[in-house]
Amino acid sequence: MTSGGSRIDARWLALIVLCAGMLMIVLDQTIVNVALPAIEEDLRFGQAGLAWVVNAYLIAYGGLLLLAGRLGDLIGHRKVFLLGLGVFTVASLLCGLSVSAEMLIVARFVQGAGGALATSVTLGMVVTMFPEKNEQRRAIGVFSFVAAAGASLGLLLGGVLTDAMSWHWIFFVNIPIGIVAAIAALRLVPDSAGLGLREGADVLGASLVVAAVMLGVYTIVKAEQYGFGSAHTLVLGAVAVALLAAFVVRQRTAAKPLLPLRVFRSRNVAGANLVQMAMVAGMFGLFFLGTLYMQLVLQYTPLQIGLAFMPVAGAIAVFSVSLSARLNARFGERTMLIVGLLFLLTGMVLFTQVPVDGSYVEHVLPAVAPVGIGLGLSFPALMTLAMSGAAHGEEGIASGLVNTTAQVGGALGLAVLATTSTSRTSSLLAAGVARPEALTAGFHLAFWISAALVTVALGLAVFVLRQVAVDREAQPVLVH
Questions:
Q1: For residue range 322-377, what is the model confidence (pLDDT) as tens digits?
Q2: Range of 393's domain?
Q3: Cα separation of 479 and 334, whole Å?
Q4: Which regions form coiled coils (predicted)?
C-alpha cells in the first residue's frame, strides 16, 4: 500500500496529465484562428467556407459535451478521457494531412467530437481526485490556468508555427502530445467503474440534447451571416429551443434520465453556469475582436499579437495557480469571483478607449493586464462554485454542463459582437469615414457590449450565488 505522501504525489502527477490533454484541446480553439489566412490560400477556400474550419469544430464540441460528461459518469471518466484523446489525436493527423477544404472540415468536426469527450470529464476527475477542499482549490486553480490561459497561448503558438513552418503544423503538434498524454493517463490517472449504462441509457434524451445544442450552436454562428432577425435564424432557433424543451420534459419523465434535473436544485450550480455563460460571452468577443484590432488597425503580425496577449497568460498563472486557493479559502469563492469580475470589467472598459494610433505600452497593456488578473481570480472560484452541488456519481455531467454553458456563451457572444462590430463599421464606411477609424469605432461598440455582458455576470454573482463556507474538518455548507 502506498504512503499518503506518494499517493498525493501520484494525484498531482495525474493532474498534470489531465491538464496537458486539456491544454492541447484548449489551444486548438484559438491556434487555428491565426492560421486561417494561410489555410484559405493553400486549400482555396471561399470566404463562407473558411468559417466552417471553426464552425465544424464548435458544433461538434458544443453539441456533445453534455452527453460525453454523462457517459463518463456511466462507464468511467478515464475511459471517456482516453477515448477523447484518441479521437482528437487521429483527427488532428487528418487535419494536418488535408488536401481539400472538404477533408479539413470533416476532420475538424471529428476533432471537435474528440475534444468534447476528453474535456467534458476533466473537471469532474479533478474534483473526484481531490475531495479535500483546500487541495481541491489548488487543483482547480491549476486546471483554471490551463482553461483560461490556453486562448492567449494558442495565439502565440499559432503565430510561431504558421510563420516558422506552415499551417499543417498547428495540427501535427497535437500528435506527440496526445500520444504521451494517453500513455501517462493509463499509468497515472485513477480509473473508475462508473455507474453502469443502465443508470442513464436514455437514448431518446441523448438524441434530443445533442440535436438541440448542435442546432443551437449552428444557428448562433450563422446568425452573423443571416442576421439575428432573419427567418433562417428565428426558425432554426425556435426548433433548437423546442428540442431543448422536449429534452427537459423527457428528463422529468425518464426512469433513468441522461441529465437528472436535481442537478439544478443547487442554486450555486445553476447560478455559476449562468454567470459563466455571460462572462465567457464577453471574454470570447474581447479576445477575437482584440485580435482583429491589433491585426487590422495596429498592423501587428500573428506573432506580435500572440506576444501582446502574453501578460494575460502570465497574470492568470500568478493568480489562479499561486494565489487563488489561499484567497478563496480566506475570503470565499463568491467574494473572489466578484472581485475577479470587477477586474475583468475594468479591462474591457479600457479596451473601449483604444485609439486608431494606439501604442502597446500606453493603451493595450493597461487593458489586457486587468483582464488577466480578472480571469485568474474568477475562473477558479467559478469552477468550484459550479461543482459544489454535484452529487457523487454526477461529477461528469456537472463538468460537461460547465463546458457546455461556456461553449454556448462563447458562440453567442462572438456572433453578437462580430455582427454588431461589422454593422457599425460598414455604416461608417458608407458615410465616408476612413477605414481605420471605422474599424476602431466598430470594435469600441463591441467592447462596450462585452463590458455589459460581464456586468450581467457580476449581477448574477452578487444576487444569485451563495458563499461556500468551508470547515477544514467537514464538508462544505452553503451560507444563506
A1: 788 889 889 999 999 999 999 999 999 999 999 999 999 999 999 999 999 999 99
A2: 4-201+256-478
A3: 11
A4: none
